[in-house]
Amino acid sequence: RSLDQLLGGNSIGRSFQNVLPSTRRHTVIGIVEDVRQRDLDDEGLATFYLLNSSYAGINNLVIRTSTATGPLMGAITEAVRNHDPATIVTRSTTMELLVADILAGQRFRARLSGVLGAAALVLALLGAYALGLRIANDRRRDIAIRLALGATAGQVHRLVLRDAAHVVSLALAAGVPAALLTSHALRGYLFGVSPTAAHVFIISALALSAVTVLALLVPAWRSAVDPALELKS
Question: Which of 34, 139, 166, 174 is 20 to 30 A from 208 in CA distance terms?
Answer without folding.
Answer: 139
